[in-house]
Structures are given as C-alpha cells and as structure tokens.
Design brief:
alpha/beta, Rossmann fold, four-stranded antiparallel beta sheet, 13 strands
C-alpha cells in the first residue's frame, strides 16, 4: 500500500488537513498512526479506505480495505446478524461463508445471543462490537481501525488486539489509531505522527510491555528438528531455551490466544508442551 505526495483539503481555499504525505506499508505490517485530536488521522484512514479522494497525490491499495470508523451509525434497518451477512456479501463472500463468519465473530465477541436484535436496540458497546466484526469477517488485504477499541469492554479489546495481530501475521496490512499509547505494544512494525502542518513523520516506536506490566502467559513448545519459530509472533514473546529443542515463550496474557493460534497454524507447526499464566513480579 502506498501514498505518494497525498494532500487533502475541503474547498479550494480550505486549509490543508494533510499535505505531502508519503507512506509505503508492506504485507504483514502493523502500523500506528498518532497525532493530536483533529490533526487528520481519521482523514488519512478514510483516504486509504477509498471513502474520500485525495486533493493531491495518489493512493495505491493492494486490494480491498475493511474499515472501522470512529463513529458507527447504529440506526441501520438490520439486526446484527443480517447486517454482518450483508457486509460479507458486499466483500464478495458467498452467502454461506458470510453467514458462517458472521456467526463466528458474534460468538468471538460474546454477543451471539444478540444476533437477531436490531442494531437500533443494541447498547453502544455491543454496537461497537458489531462495527468491529463487520471489518474483520471479510479478511480484507487492508484493515483500518480508527479508535476501534473505544467503547469495548476489556475482553473485547483483547479479542481485537488478537485479531489485528492475526491479520498482520496472515499477510494483511493493518493501520490503526488509538488513544492508548501501549496499544499493541511490541507488535507494531512502524509508527507515524500527523503534525499540525498536515505532514506525516516517523514517530517514536511504542516499546514492548515491560517486566512488571501485568499478567503474562508462559508457553512451552517443542520445535521439530530445532527449526526456527515462525516470524513476527503476536505479543513479541521473550524466548528462553529449554532442554533439547524446547523453548519457553513469555508473552503478555492479552496476546496468548493469538500466539497459540499462530504457533499451531504456522510453519513449521510446533508441539505445545505446557501453558501457564502468572503475574509478573514487580
């Protein structure tokens, strides 16, 4: 995905919200976009999504994009399940695939019992889960998350953390905006900041969650033949060699499910020997 000399303003005499933006993001990258309120972060994501057109420059996207907007309109004439299925069909899924994936994401976010509830009758938090699910079910090449964690409960935030990491691990391109500076700590491949002048510049990278940062999960695995572990593992786990070809991976607990899936489905597949959760010593 590439933005070349992209600028955006509204009206011929309007101020430049974005100006001279150059950005290249490859498959498998997870990129944070930061900046002050009103700086143009959301505008940048809408340009990448194709919702808006640049005033100057060009945007090249390597396929379909899925977008979670900052504000999701709940007054749509659908229930949760039928809305997700319709979005899946728009993304080119078959009716059966759309139905299956809609059910999977409703279940993963813990709202399968609200599948038949009209969107207008859902709570704000549940509506936000539907908004996130509609972007995830299509497995689009480009995933854009604009403050998508806002309004979610802690469990749903962890699910979205895992889903974003999984999309990147599967070769997708993920751009996200979030007010929490530790969001996806240790997983981002790059971070950029939109300045007051509308320019996009590299920002200081978010560091991995430090020791003492909360509960962690230890996963002991055996790697056949001593092969290297799959690259870019969710949570940036700390490896500790054990006897033979075994390795202990220590990861923030929020990333443990995504890490296990990546280990079991990656290449080479590994054998999981033990999984333990503990509190970091402070």
């Amino acid at each position: 995905m590439e933005l070349a000399a992209v600028g955006k303003r509204y009206g011929r005499r309007g101020r430049w919200i974005l100006r001279g933006v150059d950005l290249a993001v490859g498959p498998g990258e997870l990129v944070r976009i930061a900046g002050a309120n009103g700086s143009g972060k959301s505008t940048l994501l809408r340009l990448v999504a194709g919702i808006e057109r640049p005033t100057a420059g060009r945007v090249v996207r390597p396929g379909a994009a899925a977008y979670v907007p900052e504000r999701f309109p709940p007054a749509l004439p659908f229930d949760a399940a039928s809305y997700l299925q319709r979005v899946g069909r728009v993304h080119g899924l078959s009716a059966e695939s759309a139905r299956r994936r809609a059910g999977e994401w409703l279940d993963r976010f813990g709202i399968a019992d609200r599948a038949g509830t009209p969107l207008s009758r859902l709570s704000k938090g549940t509506c936000q889960k539907v908004a996130v699910a509609q972007a995830l079910l299509a497995e689009a090449r480009v995933l854009l998350l604009d403050e998508a964690w806002t309004g979610l409960d802690p469990e749903a935030r962890a699910v979205l953390d895992e889903a974003a990491a999984e999309r990147a691990a599967d070769g997708g391109t993920v751009l996200f905006v979030d007010h929490d500076p530790a969001r996806l700590a240790g997983l981002t491949s790059a971070a950029y900041r939109v300045g007051a002048d509308g320019a996009l510049r590299p920002a200081e990278q978010v560091e991995p969650v430090p020791d003492g940062g909360g509960p962690v999960t230890e996963i002991e695995v055996d790697v056949p033949g001593g092969s290297p572990l799959p690259p870019r593992l969710p949570g940036a786990p700390r490896p500790t060699p054990l006897a033979g070809t075994a390795v202990r991976l220590t990861v923030p607990a929020a990333h443990s499910d995504a890490l296990l899936r990546r280990l079991l489905l990656g290449c080479p597949a590994v054998r999981v020997l033990a999984v333990r959760r503990r509190e970091e010593e402070r």
